[in-house]
Amino acid sequence: DQAARLGLKDQRGVFVRGVEPDGPAAIAGVKPDDVVVRLADQPIDDGAGLRNRTAALPVGGAVPLGIIRDRKPLTLTVTIGEWPILASLGLRLEDVQGEAARRFPGQPEQAVFIADVLPAGEARRAGLLPGMRIVKVGNTSVSTKADCQAAAAALDPSEGVSIEVQITDGRKAQVVLGAIRSRPAR
Questions:
Q1: Per-residue DSSP letter, 82
Q2: Which of 5, 54, 97, 176 makes an SS bond possible with 160, Cβ 3.0 to 4.6 Å?
Q3: Distance CA 178, CA 52 (A)
Q4: What is the pTM assigned to this prediction?
Q5: CA 90 to the chain's CA centroid
Q6: DSSP readout, 102-171?
Q7: 3-state secondary structure (DSSP) of residue 47
């Protein structure tokens, strides 16, 4: 099984498929194929747990990050940075201008597109695909990556991030990513 192949005792942890260049994880030494198992001395079960725990830590603080690399445990020190919300949900965005933007209805001069969707991210599970134009984040119309990040940062993370996308034929869809669902008491 995959957990045993990676040197894990169970299925808990977050498999690292890629690392944002110059981001806090890359600076700390995290590499693709690592598995994040602890952050700030707390176990990490899955991607949502990693995202939520990271969001709860103060920006600028240095904390231990437990990983498994090549079947061996390793502890790195990561400095918590501003984590672009949409990237944490599995989206990589790209600003486009001119002809590339005008291929959509309304022919905007500038637009923001989904450049990539991480295979294991919430965005992929929601059906978002590269090439889709992001029209709104929350109730805010957006036309740049900066607009998207600012609008996402203004939302309540417990409610998730509402994203309206458009494909080239003009059809639009809305998805909510990252909502923290309450669990019934046991």
A1: -
A2: 176
A3: 10
A4: 0.58
A5: 4
A6: HTSTT--SEEEEEEEE-TTSHHHHTT--TTPEEEEETTEE--SHHHHHHHHHTS-GGG-EEEEEE-TTS-
A7: helix
